[in-house]
Amino acid sequence: MNTNKWIIYTISGLFILSGFFCIISLIYTSMENVTAKGLQDRIDSCQKELAQLSKEEASLSDWRNIGKYFDQFKNDYLMKMEEYSQFRDNLRTTFNKYGLQNKVVEHSYKQIFGYRKVNISFSVEGTYPQIKRFIHDILNRKEMIVINQIKLSKGRRSASISGNFKLEVYLVK
Amino acid sequence: MKIRYNIAKNKKINYLRFFLLTGVLLVISIGFILVGVKTLSASAKQFRNKKNELKICQEEKEAKTKKNKEQKKEIEKIKKKWKGKRGFANGLVNNKTFPFLEKLDKIEELLPAGVFIRDITLSTKSGANIQFNLAAISSSKLLEAYNMFSDYNLVISREELRDGLYNATMKIKLVTKK
Does A67 sit within 8 Å of B61, measured CB to CB? Predict the structure, then answer.
């Protein structure tokens, strides 16, 4: 009889405890879900920051490649030594082409930013339209031949104009 | 009619019902325990996974932040170099496209008849500022020239009558489109 009583107490106790355990586990899980949601939010924000950092990383590779645009500019527009030599010869032909008189062309060299800068100065004599056509020719060349200064004054011959020019050219190897 | 009396000291137990009920309670209890354990373990596993995920992400972020600091320094260096190169290229392009002819054309357009330019200097350094000497056959023509150039910040620095011509040294600011 006593044994039966103990069986009843034990089973009832086990039943109550297991029920209690089940309810507590459900409550605990739902509480933990709240914490897990908080964790998920932290993961999301961390991943956003990671994406931002990856973007910055990509921006570095863009910056590393930016030099190629300058190289392209250099190759396309700055003169090479042999081109400059041709230009020097060509300058006299251009004077003749526009009927301009010239005696001296001076060249002076300087090293700037790793490039050879050439200052070219010369004076020409001709009519105003001839000088304007010459300016137009120089300005419309593809190469970076820069006119820094033009000084126009009365020429030695009647109706002629004297033009003093200062040009600038950068040479690359 | 038969009358039955139970005169036993203790109530007679129906063992079949007793063990059946005990068994059912036992099964339900085990069920409760299983549900509880499963719920807890699943939740703990999910929680652990998320914690791990967060840890990995934070480690990765830390490593990238460190790397990015060095990269930012490198970017600053590249930017500095680039600024110089860009300035050089832009300066060249600006000078190359300096509107010499447009400025000459404009001055020609503004110059009244009877007035001519003795000398003129145009340079990329002085930009829009142009200095020139002109001569007019009469003072009224000179005044007419002043009037024409008055819209261009005209500054007259010298005026004289020489060889029957009215000479003036003046400066204007001429902004033309490239």
Answer: no
**The last residue of a domain, from among B95, B124, B158:** B95
Looking only at the bridges linking them, the beta strands covering A115-126 and A101-112 are: antiparallel
ipTM field? 0.71
Q: Which of B19, B24, B62, B119 to mutate to test the interface with A (most CBs of A within 10 A)?
A: B119
Last residue of one domain, picked from the residues B70, B95, B120: B95
Probe site for chain A from B48, B68, B74 (most A CB atoms < 10 A): B68
Is B6 a domain residue? Answer: no
What is d(CA A152, CA A132) in angstroms, rounded to the nearest whole number?
11
At B153-166, the pLDDT tens digits run: 999 999 999 888 99
Do residues B35 and B107 share a domain? Answer: no
Q: How many angstroms separate the CA of residue A47 from the nearest CA in chain B?
A: 7
- B90 and B16 together in one domain: yes
Query: What residues of B are in contact with residue A19 (Cβ under 8 Å)?
Result: 29, 32
DSSP H or E run through B119: strand B115-123
Global pTM reads 0.70
Facing residue for B118 by CB, picked from A12, A15, A154: A154
Question: What span, in angstroms and rounded, lies between the C-alpha atoms of A107 and A130?
Answer: 23
Smallest CA–CA distance from B97 into chain A, residue: A139
| pLDDT of residue B1 exceeding 90 | no
Question: Which parts of B97-160 fold into alpha helices (H)?
Answer: 100-110, 139-149
| Assigned domain for B2 exists | no
Residues B84-126: tens digit of each pLDDT: 889 999 999 999 999 999 999 999 999 999 999 999 999 998 8
